[in-house]
Structure formats: C-alpha cells, structure tokens
Amino acid sequence: MTPQLQQAIKLLQLSNIELTAYVEAELQNNPLLERAEGEEEAAAPEREGAPEEGDAASRDAEAPEEGETGAEDWLDLNGGSDGADAAGAFDTEEENVFPESADPAPASAPGPEDNWAAIPGSGGQAVGGEANLEAYVAEEISLRDHLTEQMNLAIGDPVIKLIAGHLIDMVDDDGYMRGSVESVAERLGAPLELVEQTLTALQGLEPVGVFARDLAECLTIQLKERNRYDPAIAALVANLDLIADHDIPALKRACGVDDEYLADMIAEIKSLNPKPGLSFGGVP
Q1: DSSP string for residues in 186-244
Q2: Is residue 212 included in any domain, yes or no?
Q3: Which of 10, 65, 139, 175 is 20 to 30 A away from residue 32, measured at CA?
C-alpha cells in the first residue's frame, strides 16, 4: 500500500470538523499550499447556519451523563477552547501539545560559503565537512583484465580457457602478442591447431586489433571488422613499406587500382589504430 493510499484512507475516517482542522493545520504548516478561490466563501454559510432541531436532539442524546468525562470537556474542536486550555488539561506547555503553534525557526538560504555537499538533494555527500571526491574516481581497468573478462564470457570449455589465459599473458601494452603459438602448444602439451584456433577466437575481442603478431595482421583484423578487406586493400597492407616510401606507381601496380581508389584505401589505412591496446591501462 502506497503512502498516498494510506493517507487517503486516514482522511476518509475523519469527521467534517476533524477534516477542517486538518486542512487548516496543513495550510499553516506548508506555505506552498493555497486555499482554492471560493472555498472559504462556500464554507462560511455552513459554519454560520443555525442547527436544525434534529441536530440539537442528536447532540442531547449523545451528551455525556453527569459524572462522565467526554472529549469536549477538555478540547472543543469547534473553537470553544484554545491551545492554552488544552495544555492546561495535559499539565504541560502549549508548544508541547501543538508544536505548530511555536514560532518557527527562521530559514536561511544556503550561500556560496556553505557546505553544499551536505545539503540533502544537492547530489554530493559530505565526509568530515568536505566532499570525498576520491570515492568517485573509477579505478582504471587494465588491458589484461578487460581481455580476461571477455574471455570468461565467450569461452566455456576449460581446456580452451586455459590456452586463452596463456595467450592473454603474452599480450603487451600495445595489444600485440609477443610470443609464438608453438611455444604455448609445447608448454601446455596442447595440439598446435587448437592453440591457433583459440588465438583466432581471441582476435575477435575488443579493442579490435588485439592479439595481432605484427602491424599488417593488426590492420587486417580491423579491416575485416569493418567489412573493408578485399584483394586490393589486402595487397596494400602487404606493401606497407611502399606507403612509407610514397611510391605511388608501385602501389598502383601492386593493388591494380587507379589514383583515386588508391587514395581512398590509404585514407582507410590511416584511420585504423596501430596500437589498440593503448586505450587501456598498462598490463599489471
């Protein structure tokens, strides 16, 4: 049951007089509330009207007998008794009975010199009077952690997972695998074909281009991921030294393309990341 529904049920159980007193108290306690126009004028004739005979007879029947004490004897909700009378009945101060009648403490708006982090709803949290900003600084994840997390989600076979763990240990900060699949197969006593298949699967992890053994393989992985790997651009990747030498005629002959297509392929190559591992922290 929601708080709004609980409050609605509580209000339905109040009499007209109690409901009127509740509304008046809410209007006094909450300055944001306003009385609807015409409500006060509509309620006035009802309060000023003379009671009918049936109502008088009903009140006579409900009046407490002599010797009995009713609620009206110490507090008249119609206004016959004020807060001081009620306080006297409880033998205490008026503000203890009606806390809203006490003078409210003056509210002051927070200023620039105040601790905004300690203000509820301000979005900060005060620790010892100062915002603990270091708690919000995320710990930098390493490339090895990122690859291991992906591997655990992608691979379920324990043997392949063991091989993959050794291959991850051979990746440097740039994202390249420094070592041979033959050494992993020999160390683990695993078939070389299985190690190569595991490496191919790991080359599909992010960042794209990791687990390459040289620059050409790194660029090839990224081009295949973009669906841009065709025979012409494969020939261009195989002749990266000609790009460094700016030997355009030799590149055109090797790729079998014209000047415009060659320029587009070179621009594509330059948009790739030659060191994909550097987007993460160093391997711990």
Answers
A1: HHHT--HHHHHHHHHHHTTSSSTTTTBSSHHHHHHHHHHHTT---HHHHHHHTTHHHHH
A2: yes
A3: 10
